[in-house]
DNA sequence: CCGTGTGATTGGAACGATCCAAAGGTAACC
DNA sequence: GGTTACCTTTGGATCGTTCCAATCACACGG
């Protein structure tokens, strides 16, 4: 149980009713714009509402009607611009549909995710949009939200067996196609020794992105040296630290497909430190097309995902589910688009 | 009135009570960990809670207790990394205190701000943290939230007369000192013709930042040419478009203090297009220290504000107000720190 | 004059929790 | 045995809204 704070005396329907000599029920009808009430009565009531500064108590209404007007949005990393834009898309679309967004940030911790879900669920959201933290397990999520709460999974799969009786919708990026495109682009530029840098194989997005890379390499008949797969946390700083491993083996790669923009930027940093110019001495690509990607030196070739649009899509997916709770689960694989900039020049 | 959606049958206290042969009141006591209940009873009830998968209905409890366990966070631009980090700080601190964050994004539109506030207030938040949209008026905000809702204003002042009976707390950046430091730094580097670029004078932060710049220039006995004040929207793209105005007059500046990092990065873009190398051919400083600032070419000298910490602070301010509703209004001016990087080299 | 239809209004019971005063049970003491 | 005290439990009212069936006022047709 948690701390809560008292709120000041509020104006209720009873106050309005008393104030203009009608019943509570009539005022309620006015509020909801019912055609039943007489024109003059309505005018009188509306005047009184204004006069007393009435504000609707949606929680009480939701209790009585057994409805909900909120949706929980749980993100693994709000501070990441990709998710921030995603969140603003979600909020926008939910707002248009009359819902309010309950925010929860987990900071990539599965434990915090549990706590956050547990706390949000008590506020009775109509549904949940979840971008799982790394290592988050389907079993735990199910335990936290129960089998009946509509949910949209974004960006990553949950670990463990998927409970098939809870029909969860999914909005995933076309990770594999994305890195395949990037890899094919580097190959077309003339690169042959291409590494895959950053991310971790225990997240579904990491595995998928690696798979796309491997697929393109194989299709081109190019071998992959074991030391060309370097893992890192999906953050710039950790990537910069991990980068040296790329050059420890022989033969050294001339290019790298990176897990996302953050690690690509980290790799750029590390390249500079080694005296290599990204783009001309070493080619690389990112994933996400965050704002920084266009501004880096050189500008980063990457995969554009339009996170704000994704946010709207996730909201739409949830809203559709609310309209039709029994529909079978949908999975949307959002397309990604290769944006070629100057970080992926041919080898010299 | 807005659309809402039905929620499935939920387990209530009555179900639990019936399920283990005690009264509703006893179950409620167990839930709240009251020391009154007998050990064995408690165990029996807790077992039953687990068995039936009970989830607490906080809305119902809040209704009865006339409390609230949520706080509304209304931001002018969530997609901006500065505010995204701020939001994650707010959410973190609120979560620790047992509150849930209701999110609202206004996209710099005062009209949307009105709508968002109106919708959020119906959910009965214990308080509001508001980063006002450009041109947002105190009068309108007051009308939307009423005089009794605790509120923390962040980052900008509201327009119009401040209603003194509503004691609103404030968390503002030390804008003036920030740009003064930046300007003094450029002067110390040897610059004499320094412009002030970006932002608008009808937002309080814009005026304050300009004032800091003007103050430093005056203190150094440097004159300011009229065409050295160029306004723009606080976005990168608009800044890049507006930048040419800096070079239309004579004498041209050799450096610029920028309204924030976004416009500084936009200015960099424009400089490149003119064939000028930022840093060496033209010095500039930003404001905010967003992640991109350290990564730009050259890295941007800017003012660090630690937005996540600011978020925590805003939350603390609101929580303090909830504990002490009658305390007089507090204003915190958060310090900013000059981070010198390579975009502010001496003129040649 | 009565029955009936229509339009407008209303009292009271919900929703799921908490609060409060009261009561039941047991043990201890005089 | 009766009084007191303590520990535990409980019924019913309540928070602010919506729902529902019932009621009321009034006009109309037969």
Q: What keywords describe this structure?
A:
homodimer, 434 Repressor (Amino-terminal Domain), Rossmann fold, 3 domains, 4-stranded parallel sheet, 14 strands, 15% strand, DNA-binding
Largest interface: A-B, 71 and 72 residues
Largest sheet of chain A: 6 strands, parallel
- Shape summary of chain A: elongated
Unreliable parts of chain A: none
Class computed from helices, strands and strand pairing of chain A: alpha/beta
Q: Which CATH C-level class of the largest domain in chain A is it? A: Alpha Beta
CATH superfamily of the largest domain in chain A: Response regulator
Counting copies of identical and different chains, the oligomeric state is homodimer
Give the second-level CATH assignment, the architecture of the largest domain in chain A. 3-Layer(aba) Sandwich
Count of folded domains of chain A: 3
Number of helices of chain A: 13
Mean pLDDT across every amino acid position of chain A:
93
- Bin the strand percentage of chain A: 5-15%
> Strands of the largest sheet of chain A, in order across it?
4-3-5-6-7-13
Percentage of residues in helical conformation of chain A: 40-55%
* Rounded Rg of chain A: 26 Å
The total count of strands of chain A amounts to 14
CATH topology of the largest domain in chain A: Rossmann fold
Pfam families (chains A, B): LacI, Peripla_BP_3
Protein name (chains A, B): LacI family DNA-binding transcriptional regulator
Keywords (chains A, B): DNA-binding, Repressor, Transcription, Transcription regulation
GO molecular function, one term (chains A, B): transcription cis-regulatory region binding
